[in-house]
Design a protein that fits this description.
Blueprint (H helix, E strand, L loop, with lengths): L1 E8 L6 H9 L8 E9 L6 H10 L5 E8 L5 H11 L4 E4 L5 E2 L3 H9 L5 E9 L3 E3 L15 E4 H4 L12 H9 L6 E12 L7 H6 L9
Parallel strand pairs: 1-2, 1-4, 2-3, 6-9
Antiparallel strand pairs: 4-8, 5-9, 6-7, 6-8
Helix pairs in contact: 1-2
């Protein structure tokens, strides 16, 4: 079984080494495999020296690191779609490059998905307050953020993110991917840290301050 982790990047390289360092210490063994897909969406520059050590660390018989880069910025939805097109894993997860993950992220995803579920929902922490967040499990979609889920490739099918949206693309996509609670798994396992304070130029912050429309022009 192979896990593909899709990580969109746009001028957020400074936080990425932390994530890659943690993933390089979680290389699976046996029949488990790991694929990390970095999608640079037209950043001002690509500091290759930052990721070179991790290209080497993640180049093993059971893991690899891919870098996709374009010159123009197309938005996070495009970047995630590009990652989906290039992913070869049986399991898909998404990580935002300005956030953080747990030290047992890979192991936890494998353990939950090997139960045979189509998708799994996880809890998360938010920083800087280290607030514990648990989604509303009474709803079909208990959390509107894709990084709180892992999916089988079959569950995702051919669904793509709406590239016209600046915000709300997660819930729009989840409403098309998650159509039933059947064959789902809910766990109290925490694999993700939502780091609200990291990126002052995030699309969410710009939208909340009225500087960004909901849809891309």
């Amino acid at each position: 079984m192979k896990l593909s982790i899709i990580i969109p990047i746009y001028n957020t390289w400074e936080w990425l080494p932390n994530i890659l360092e943690k993933l390089s210490n979680q290389i699976p063994t046996g029949d488990r495999m790991l694929e990390v897909i970095l999608v640079d969406d037209g950043s001002d520059e690509i500091p290759l020296a930052l990721i070179k050590p991790y290209v080497q660390k993640l180049h093993t018989p059971t893991s690899n690191l891919k870098l996709i880069s374009v010159f123009m910025n197309h938005g996070v939805s495009w970047a995630r779609n590009e990652g989906l097109d290039k992913a070869t894993g049986d399991i898909i997860t998404f990580v935002d490059s300005d956030d953080d993950i747990e030290m047992d992220y890979v192991e936890t995803v494998f353990e939950n998905m090997e139960t045979g579920c189509s998708y799994c929902i996880y809890d998360k922490y938010t920083t800087p307050s280290k607030q514990y967040y648990r989604g509303d499990r009474n709803k079909l979609i208990p959390d509107p953020a894709v990084y709180c889920y892992s999916f089988t490739r079959e569950c995702i099918g051919k669904e793509k993110f709406n590239e016209k949206l600046n915000v709300g693309e997660d819930i729009d996509w989840l409403q098309r991917v998650i159509t039933s609670k059947e064959n789902s798994r809910y766990t109290r396992d925490i694999i993700y840290w939502y780091c609200w304070h990291h990126n002052k130029d995030s699309l969410c912050k710009k939208f909340n301050s009225g500087k960004l429309p909901k849809e891309r022009r």
